[in-house]
Fold these 2 entries.
Entry 1:
Amino acid sequence: MRTLAHISDLHFGREDPVVVEGLLRSLEEAKADVIVVSGDLTQRAKKKQFRAAKAFLAEMPKVPRVVVPGNHDVSTTNLFERVVRPLKRYRRFISQDLTPFWSDAEVAIAGINTVRLMSTKDGRMNRVQVEKACGQFATAAGAAVKVVVTHHPIDVAADDLKHPTLTRSKMAMARFAECGVDLFLSGHLHVGLTLSSSVRYPLAGYSAVVVHAGTAVSTRTRKEANGWNLIRVSEGGIFVQRMVWGGKRFRRGDMETYRKTPIGWERQAAESVS
Ligand SMILES: [Fe+2]
Ligand SMILES: [Fe+2]
């Protein structure tokens, strides 16, 4: 069993400092094995905002982390930078690595950059990126739960007609089914959500768990309080615990359980934990 802390959409520049402190405390208590950050570390990709994001990452528990950029991490004010080096500041302050990968005997996590120059809002994934992630997974232990991290979601709720999935998501999902991806983590929409991939992508014998995180610390909340996900994974089970800001600290919210079955990961039950 491994525990992943999945945080997203920090939006430094629009952060609530009280929630930032609360998140750091909550992450300490969670004792996660790995921390995943699924993009939008800053509000407008300004140096000051990246410095604040970097300082925050340095204060997080010293465990492995997999971090990917979001559309807000691309400069919108400097056209030259935007065209020539769109993620220059992200690379400078956060990480040079836009294809981060971490694995041990129980979990393998591949981060993919879905930010594109010409479509700042909606993300995209290409075949090279998908093949690279599958190649990384091929090096992992056979029993490891395989996790893909993107900023933009590869899947959204079937009744969500407002938000698109990332471009080329159908191609990506078909290949990820072949290389056995179990879990997709993303952000961007600022609303926490858990889905089964087989509703939108019916593929024989395959259904992955798709988890969106809300915004962890920013004031850009939509419909719900700040939140993040505490996810336990093992060969037979994926448990998604929603962590919700309660005004003074993060509290445990709903938990969803998925079990591995011959037709993929199946949702078991939702239970509310106060
Ligand atoms: Fe965001
Ligand atoms: Fe975003």
Entry 2:
Amino acid sequence: MPIKNRFAELQPEIAAWRQDLHAHPEVLFDTHRTSGIVAEKLSAFGCDEVVTGIGRTGVIGVIKGKSDTSGKVVGLRADMDALPIPEETGVAYASKTPGQMHACGHDGHTAMLLGAAKYLCETRNFDGRVVVIFQPAEEGGGGGREMCEDGMMDRFGIQEVYGMHNWPGLEVGQFAIRPGAFFAATDLFEIEVEGKGGHAAKPNETIDSTVVASHIVLALQTIASRNADPVDQVVVSVTGFETSSQAFNVIPQKVLMKGTVRTMSAEMRDMAEARMTKLVEGVAESFGAVAKLNYMRNYPVTVNHEVQTDFAASVARTVSGDCAPADLVMGGEDFSFMLEERPGAYILMGNGPSAALHHPKYNFDDEAIPAGCSWWAEIVEQRMPAA
Ligand SMILES: [Zn+2]
Ligand SMILES: [Zn+2]
């Protein structure tokens, strides 16, 4: 039984919701209109509980099955936020907000999970509870983290969580997944090096912060080449290098550097941060300078749990007949915070030959709606079979 017939019927309605969301993008936590529409629709569908204001502008809906004797509670998550990118799709329903657009397809994610919620409220053909999770600020704001910090998992008794992202380049209606590490941890850092400024013609009277910072940049290269196991992935990139003076004849007092660290495991992440701290402080000290590392942990590694990944893949095969192995992604994903709190899985769903994610010509493909909604509904009906 592939695509559920009900979603073929509902597709035009769900596509209309999606296009309305597309025309009104909202970024980070400012998803006030979107959250309002989500809450209003969940109530209209007959959700047993609708709660707003979780993780600032996040929305939760609870749907009970025909029976609720299994004790099972499954969470399904969609993201709602758009990006600060001027749209160039030329579609009739293009963004009405200058400089913002749904360039990552979160309009499609929100509409599909709403479609699944509508179906699940109509049919309730399961034994247990579904918690539909609509989060703001996936694109850098950590909305998923804030919803977790608001106690969402315990409050609604969520036992497992599932998430989905559309994927350009994968055929519409097809799915891809991998167990274990999937999306990278995406940390940020700043390093301030302070020496002793002075005249460029008298370096002996200074502590040259530029020379010290240059040694630090080189030392950081040894984290990947000498500290990491060669079969593991770690990227340490210094992307900014700014001196406190731009004059030709001044040795600057300070240098400020910044950059990013990408890792695929908690161990590599801890190792990278620990080595950076030692190298930055130790190299500076050896020159008589002082350096401070500000290491900012952003999104953790998105780790798919084995059992739930196998299940998610088997559900994808039910819907589309196949489920491809996915490659590692060096981008980040804040569903990772939910997967740190509960077992679950994140799957990719084909968006066909569209422009890439975050491109001004990207658009979600409404033809993918029936497959995406069917996957959500099957996750629920197969995980918590009707008594
Ligand atoms: Zn994105
Ligand atoms: Zn996205």
